[in-house]
Amino acid sequence: MSGLKKELWGWVRYIAGLAAAVFLITSIAGLNRVSGESMQPSLADRDILLVNKLSRYIGEPAYGKVAVIASSSLGYRLVKRVIGLPGDIVEIRGGIVYVNEEALPELYSTGDPEDMAPQPVRPEHVFVLGDNREPGASLDSRNPKLGQVPVSEIEGYALMRLLPWGGIAGPLD
Q: Transmembrane segments in this chain: where (predicted)?
């Protein structure tokens, strides 16, 4: 093999390897920018999140996780917290969120939400809320425009806030 062919073959292998690495990395992790004030006080407008995309393939939704949702009904991405799983009953009474008649200890949320009648979470769906619970502050599962979110629309779960640097407030275990 001539020197030129050998060098060209080396470049082809390098570019193919680089493309495969980029594909794997973007399939496993990603970045997402928070838009709006619906996740305050945990996250602010324009925060950058590191998102674990792999978890959507190998895990199930979990209480308290901050999910990145690609809403087909709205046509854009949202960042919301998972509150209810399939089969749960979610209710808001006196400003307190209840899941299956148990009050959630939510130190990460702010605001006084309006009451909401008990809602059973449908199969293959999750009930999500923004951390800012003031009426009208968050487009979440309380709003019929979004409603309960199909699990298939969850792109991944936030691992951490990259900019500004820091963690994300989570549920009490």
A: 12-31
Q: What is the model's pTM? A: 0.83
Report pLDDT digits (tens) over 84-107.
999 999 999 999 999 999 999 888
Q: Provide the number of structural domains found in the chain.
A: 1
Give the model confidence (pLDDT) of 16-52 as tens digits: 888 887 887 777 888 888 999 999 998 999 999 989 9
The span from the CA of 7 to the CA of 160, in Å, is: 42
* Domain boundaries, position 66: 3-163
Return the closest-CA partner of residue 68 out of 20, 33, 108: 33
Which residues participate in catalysis according to the annotation?
Answer: 38, 80
Distance separating alpha carbons of residues 127 and 69, to the nearest angstrom? 12
CA 38/CA 146 separation, integer angstroms? 14
* Residue 66 is assigned to a structural domain of this protein: yes
Sign of the CA dihedral running 23, 27, 31, 32: positive
> What b/e string do you get for 139-151 counting C-beta neighbours within 10 Å, with b at 16 or more?
bbbbeeebbbbbb
Do the domain assignments include residue 136? yes
* pLDDT of the residue at 160: 86
Q: Could you tell me if residue 27 is inside a domain?
A: yes
